[in-house]
């Protein structure tokens, strides 16, 4: 089900999963994404919270620690695979664009 | 409404599909010098006096929020922490709504994905609004089906049933409009977001509309009952319906108090012990309501129906047979009054031992003397008699048809047409039945039962002896 739902990741989902390759909390993710994209992509806390809940439910990330209000997560094998697949898809798009002579 | 010079209370509806309206309202109030302090039960807004200031508000719904939340759960604290990390200040949680403010106009929005936001809002709308509307609609449809099928005769005959039909039609109409408008809004919102736009929001629901809706429902109910009680001089219905509405109001207040206690003590969903206590209290209140209603229906209703002058409650002959008629008796041997609904008239007449009582069509009592009783039936006979009168021949025809099919609501089952013998009579249809269920009941009159009818009247008579021609003539004279 998760496969079907997240067959194509949105930009925000992609960056969130990318950040979770290293254990971190939601606040860190917001900061990291802003830094990686130089502010081009911003993730609101509401959006992030909703996605985190769904990702945990689908087994894409897992909770690793709770410290006060902060909860840390890390990507699972399933999440890594999804991220890799999305990366490959994006690479294909880029390659197709570059090699297109029509 | 001002609690004191520093606190202001306002009642507003906060809905998932019109969060912007609430946000704008809060910003407007802050501009006037009233800063939100708390929202209780999703409609009671408590403000605190402040310097008028330009403040940005965010009213949000979280995906795992519940209408039973009074404060953030441990998990939801993560959400608040993330919002605060980007510059929002948390104010309060009310059910599934979270309210934040900031004086920095440059702070990023809490939601950055419109489709995800729409899905959360849609889920909240379905959870909070659809469930109620669908429960109301299912109840309404069941009540209407019941009114038009199981108790069709009551629908035609009973003012109260007609009132109930009107009531549920109003409820069904309002809820159908409510659901339809939300479904249309969802479709529109999905299209707009898919084409890159922002989620359109509905106009703020007005608490006034909800109050008006409840008032209409209450007015139909209470007004109808009062009209009925005045017209038919029946205090029972006149008192009963307002009591039911009073109970609903009391239940609402009790519920409200429980919510306030829960909020004050920060009792939430994650607190299982508290949840058990709340559930138990609410459950007990509901049970008390049900028990009180049942008591009103039975004990109190019984005493209302029988009147307060009945000394001997062993006189059970006046028990109703489930029709909408309300009978009232005082001193059973002297006065029996019957009251009837619309064009559908039923008289219960009881004679026991040395007394006979007869009612006329207008429900006026004619006490028959012993002498008159002798003329009518020998006084030592125990007998009882029911008379139905209707100007509508179709109703009489249907009752007879149903009696022939053994349906309980007319004279069926009690009067067994299969074993009845038709007695020759020029003017009336007369059936005599000696093998009925009544024979097994020692308390009931009637080794002999008679069903006598014409186009507008049915007389059902139970007595210990066979009636003779003279008595039949008397029945014809009195009732037909």
Structure commentary:
The complex is a heterodimer of chains A (102) and B (480). Chain A has five helices and three strands. Chain A has 102 residues and is α+β, with helices and mostly antiparallel strands. Chain A has one domain (2-96): Arc Repressor Mutant, subunit A. In chain A, strands 1-3-2 form a three-stranded antiparallel sheet. In chain A, β2 (61-67) and β3 (70-75) form a beta hairpin. The longest helix of chain A has 23 residues, at 77-99. Chain A is globular and about 55 Å long. The mean pLDDT of chain A is 89. Chain B is of the alpha+beta class and 480 residues long. Chain B folds into three domains: 2-102, no CATH class; 114-280, no CATH class; 326-479, no CATH class. Chain B has eleven helices and 17 strands. Chain B has helices spanning 19-31, 76-85, 114-150, 152-157, 159-194, 207-231, 235-264, 272-306, 370-376, 393-404, 469-479; strands spanning 2-4, 7-11, 34-40, 44-49, 56-61, 89-94, 97-102, 326-330, 335-339, 344-351, 356-359, 365-368, 383-390, 421-423, 429-433, 448-453, 457-463. A six-stranded antiparallel sheet of chain B has the order 10-13-17-16-15-14. A four-stranded antiparallel sheet of chain B has the order 1-2-4-3. A three-stranded antiparallel sheet of chain B has the order 5-7-6, with helices on both faces. In chain B, β11 (356-359) and β12 form a beta hairpin. The longest helix of chain B is centred in the N-terminal third of the chain and has 37 residues, at 114-150. At the A-B interface, α3 and α4 of A face α2 and α3 of B.
